[in-house]
Specification:
0% strand; mainly alpha; 139 residues
Length: 139
């Protein structure tokens, strides 16, 4: 007898990867457009875009996790899914910065910035996972 397990179709890691990838594409498109238009981003604008990307990735991950599991999502699943997604997002955006710097010759990310980026995304992802998880959870 075959069981129809929706978690087997798309695991939590795949949900995190897909959500982080969509958010990274948004971030890359935005920053590349700014570079092509020869505009400059202020630090506050960069932080705002990063927060929007984190919220977008966490929301998408929790929404997908809820839909795949038959419209059920516990608070712990929401917290862990969102948190993992924000950490994967930090890795993807750091990789984007590395590739962008090699292509353009601009050194946007100073040494040691990966650790700061990972901590920032980790903390903000955890906070937004809790906030969004409260609204999306369904037992």
């Amino acid at each position: 007898m075959e069981q129809n397990n929706p978690r087997g179709v798309l695991s939590g890691l795949m949900i995190a990867l897909v959500s982080a990838l969509f958010s990274t594409i948004f971030y890359a498109a935005f920053t590349t457009l700014v570079y092509i238009k020869k505009l400059t981003l202020q630090q506050s604008q960069v932080v705002f875009i990063q927060i929007v990307c984190i919220v977008m990735a966490v929301f998408l991950a929790q929404y997908l996790a809820r839909k795949i599991q038959g419209n059920k999502l516990s608070m712990m699943q929401a917290l862990l899914t969102g948190w993992l997604t924000s950490m994967v997002l930090a890795i993807f955006i750091s990789s984007y910065y590395t590739i962008f710097s090699k292509i353009t010759g601009l050194n946007i990310m100073p040494k040691g910035a990966f650790a700061m980026l990972l901590l920032l995304y980790n903390g903000l992802g955890l906070i937004w996972s809790i906030i969004i998880g409260v609204f999306l959870k369904k037992e």
